[in-house]
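User: ok so my PI wants both of these folded by tonight, can you help

Assistant: No problem, let's get them done. Here's the first:
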Amino acid sequence: MKRWLVAIAVILITVQSLAQDKDKDKDKDKAKDQGGRFLYADFEQLQDGRPVSTRGGMVSLNGFEAVQSVSYTNSDKPWPHLPMIVPAGKNNTQCVAFNFSIPAGNAWAGVTLEIHGMPEKDGKQVAEDMSGYNYIVVQVIAQGTETLRAEVNSKDNGVKVKDGEGYGANFPLKPGFNTYRLPLKQFTQPKWDTVIRVDLKEVLKHLTSVNFVVQKIPSVGQVVIDNVAFEK
């Protein structure tokens, strides 16, 4: 366990020392489509000490498992389970991170960072149309997993997709803090016979959240994420 704590500390120190784009506009208008890029979440804003997306949507953690319970940052606290905030340093902007522990003995399990684009209204998730974009872009550094899964989701807006049956794509991670440009056309639903099929365009037209998921069994580590954007 001490070895993992040292590795996790090294990641956070590394993030503090990496050069990032420091020219971010502090205005909420920065999320608007500018030259074919829509900044979905850069985690610069805090509301009541909690990280939010560029438009003020909730950022939270959740876990799932078949048998043996997963654990993650703040999973022992009351809901919502919040990621850690990595403060801006001399050469980096503010970002979020989470620790995870996924035990053996599970046929399936994972820990998810869920980013809502908009704040809820009347207890329901608010949708926005992202169907005009072709890529999701994200910056990631991780320890303890070599792969992440990116997902796009729609809830409360007429798109009938069950939990665990939405569109997503796995992508391999390289050493260090890197930018990944993920083609949305490669996002697919699970191939199970029981999955209710929906059109990806319909999900993107009514998008409510973007997820990043660790699914390695077993695993212990940390993920740091920044600058989630849609691009044409």
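One down. Here's the second:
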Amino acid sequence: MTRLRTILLLLALVVGGTGSAQPLPDAFHVVGTLPPDRVGQLMARVSGELPAVSLHYRQMGESEIVSMIESPLPPDRPIDLVVLPTPDLGVRLANEGLLDSLPISLEQPDPSHWRQEVFSLFHDPAMIAVRKDAPLPEAALRTRLDLARFLESAPPRFRGRVGLVNIGIDSQSYAYATQDQLRSPLYWRIMRAFGHLDARIYETNAEILDALRNGRIDLAYNLPLSQLVFEPLDEIRIDAFEDYVIALPWVVFAPSPDRNPMTPLVVDLLRDDVLQQRFPPKTFWAPADGEGLTNTQKVKLGPELLVFQDALKKSAILDEWFQSVTRE
């Protein structure tokens, strides 16, 4: 975003629709599931564009964020903007009338938002992570069919040395799983193959990457590229399937109805292409939106994501997943 554009937007916020000057708040509160060190450079860049505003970031659990949005926000814990890796949750909250429609700069047609309430920041591709010293042929990772066949016939050495993130705990992993099984029946064959090898189940991406780093497992499936580029992974090789790569949008949205007048400007700053390109690779952002990957299938924001937020549908998917990966 050019400094002139920033100034013009600030003037529009200060003057407002009445033509009379309106005071701007001196603080802006962002919440998300990422730890502060993952968003530090992002917050610093936004603060650099808005030096008169004190920008605060708070890490919270996803369920806690949803609970606060669904109930009156306490004055001592304000939320002006939410940043999440789960677009399906954002669309659900919008559908329930809990989010604000933001008047920000948009080009038409613009598929990167849902009703100007949920806005995508970038698409995060799902990758495979493998230890470099693991005796796993590269041909086993070309396509999902190759992986399924390898896992089904893998030597005993791989038993207990493959890993998955628990999709019943991690919402981003659940979203990857729903999109994966939607595209190919091979997803469930792969999950059964993981179960055949007594896959280890982890609660978070950070935990499974720690297991890879320390040699407790050799292979992990459907990990977000944004996490992989942030971690020091000298021992790990990152691979992508040739058949298709699922890419989920990270989203931002504002709770309704008490909008901070700075919110449209902050969202505009976050979404600005020029701003995003100033970040080095090992930060909050996935590098160049998955540049260089082939057959990337970017998940779009829209009501179709609500299907997997339905309680009965979600329960059925989780039941099948646990039966597959635990063989129970």
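The first helix runs from residue 3 to 15. DSSP finds twelve helices and eleven strands in the chain. Good luck tonight!
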